[in-house]
Amino acid sequence: MIRRPSLTTRLSLLFMLALTGVLLAVGLTFNLLSREHFVDLDRHALHEKLQASQRLLGGLRRADQLEALGPQLHTLLGAHQDLRAQILAADGRVLFAEPSEAAIPARFRTQTHALWEWWEEGRLLRGMTAQVALAEPGQSLTLLLALDVTHHADFFAALERWLWIALGVCALLSAGLGWLVARSGLRPLREVTQVAATVSARSLKERIPEAALPVELRPLVSSFNGMLERLDESFVRLANFSADIAHELRTPLTQLMTHTEVVLTRARSLEEYQDALYANLDDLKRMARMIDDMLFLAKADNGLIVPARRPLALHELVDKLLDYYRLLAEEHGIALQASGRGLIAGDEGMLRRALSNLLSNALRYTSAGGSIRVAIAEGEGEVMLSVENPGPSIPAEHLGRLFDRFYRVAPADREGGGNAGLGLAITRSIVEAHGGRIRCASADGITRFELAFPAAMAAGPL
């Protein structure tokens, strides 16, 4: 497996590449501009010589009069030791050369108004060509001037050589400097890593301090601390859940074992064995319901509960449930009332289960002569449903944990009554799976559960 370079190495390499790229661009730009500058200087020098020579030669009538201007041409063109000059007649004869052995390739004789150059025996020459019209018709001269600019070429060769050397040295220095800067800049990240490495399931209470961290690392550390907090809450909830499961299952198992042991202490009749088995069956059914409820909550925690989204008249569902519970309510002298209408998008079976839990609780804690009221109201983009019953007020310290698993307010239930304390937790999971919310308010002998669902039009495609 190929080992990937460390972040420090990658940052130092990026720093080196960036700095080297900038220096290379600056060096090439300087080299290009310098070359253009020297070319302009050469062009200007040649242009001046050409203009002066043209003014001098322009006074001639014929090409054979050029010899009379020899001293002046030697003074004008011979003072510059790097300058070569040739004056040609219209037929190509060389009428004047300075120095006398100066040779300029014939291909440049027609390249007027352009700067040309060529290499000759390791020397670079740059020149210009001009045509001089004489006074007599049909008479003209060709003037060629060339400067030896080999020293310019040598200068730029040395400049490029030192540029590449300096670029290599700067690349090495920038790599080392980048490594130091990256290592220093990443020191807070290493400190965070060291602290994170000490975190375990037994030390989830620890948090990484954010005050001394750079601004760039604070969002990362804040997210990490938030993750630790969520993990801590999850571990605590899991530990409590495991303890609650063990406690809740221990009671019926103990009852089953005790009852079975008592039955087996002596021989009994067939009817007695049947009664014992029916009693054990009731406990087993209660354990099976508890296990089903725990599996439902586990699925809800992992987002596996996906309700169907179908149009549902909430008032019709409430009427069916009240008809189902009416006989039981009449036996206890409790009145059931419903009001309001509302349309939502949801899963009828799941909502039936959630509302059944609320109605069962209301019937359990409502005394004879009381009345349970179910009210439905449509608000702005949502449908509100409330289940209200008279009975003992729930103390404020219990309201915040009322929807926790296995949490029961009544001491008798906490000591192992028939209520497992999962109904309200399931109800909350179902409501939240439908995109709704649930809360409980209890005061002055009235307990009210309030549910809010998105209205059918606001619930998305059905």
UniProtKB/TrEMBL annotation:
Residue stretches making up the Histidine kinase domain: 244-457
Keywords: ATP-binding, Cell inner membrane, Cell membrane, Kinase, Membrane, Nucleotide-binding, Phosphoprotein, Transferase, Transmembrane, Transmembrane helix, Two-component regulatory system
CDD domains with a match to the protein in the record: HAMP (cd06225), HATPase (cd00075), HisKA (cd00082)
Record-given protein name: Sensor protein
Enzyme class: transferase
Source species, domain of life: Bacteria
Membrane topology according to the record: Multi-pass membrane protein
PROSITE patterns assigned: HAMP (PS50885), HIS_KIN (PS50109)
InterPro entries: CusS-like_sensor, CztS_silS_copS, HAMP_dom, HATPase_C_sf, HATPase_dom, His_kinase_dom, HisK_dim/P_dom, HisK_dim/P_sf
Residue intervals of the HAMP domain: 183-236
Listed EC numbers: 2.7.13.3
Reaction it catalyzes: ATP + protein L-histidine = ADP + protein N-phospho-L-histidine
Amino-acid biosynthesis as UniProt keyword: no
Transmembrane segments: 12-33, 162-182
Gene Ontology annotations for the cellular component aspect, listed alphabetically: plasma membrane
